[in-house]
Amino acid sequence: MKKLNMVNTSMKEYTAEDLITYKLQRLGIYIAKPKFDIDGTDLFAMLRSQTNTGVIFKYCRIQCKYRSLTGNKRNNVEIPEAYVKHDFIVFLYIEDGDIANNHLYCFLWEDMLAQCSPWHLKNGKYNLSISCKDFEKLFRKYVFDQAKVDRIKQRIETSLQIIQTVHGFAELTLPAFEIKAEAHVEA
After folding, report:
1. Domain 10-166 of CATH type 3.90.640.10
2. For the whole model, what pTM was predicted?
3. Using one digit for the tens of pLDDT, what is the confidence trace for 74-90?
4. What are the distances in angstroms from CA 176 to CA 29, 170, 171, 179, 182?
5. Which of 31, 86, 135, 168 is least crowded, fewest Cβ atoms below 10 Å from its Cβ?
6. Rounded CA gap, 101 and 176, in Å?
């Protein structure tokens, strides 16, 4: 039996997803995790608001990516074009062996579509090439920081994606009704 020469990165991918969840929740964004893949969605980022009819959660979809540059000089990310909509956000955690720095980047859909974007559309997929020598410089404007959080919150607030709970009161007047009862006695 042949051994596959692949490194299982699922533990690190989940750790990166947990880090992203922690940071967003700490900054006031609710996070939910779907039980199955919905158009590349790893997480839902939500904001809650109260209306006179109930609670509304508006949300955006997040895809979390982990890439390692330890032992590799290059890596890449591919995302199907169909996933990249107004409500789609990509987080990228890059591990380069420097444990003192968290290399966490955030790309909103307009970041991916921009003319000067490091993402390139090819064969129906957005591709991002990551090089050990220049990723920090290349991705500087995509570093996850307070400005990105503000943009994410604004994106969620203007999102058409809504989960709504409705509470209400209804007073009904029913027409009068008559009840007839008959007894049958068996002999």
Report:
1. no
2. 0.79
3. 899 999 999 999 999 99
4. 52, 19, 16, 10, 20
5. 168
6. 74
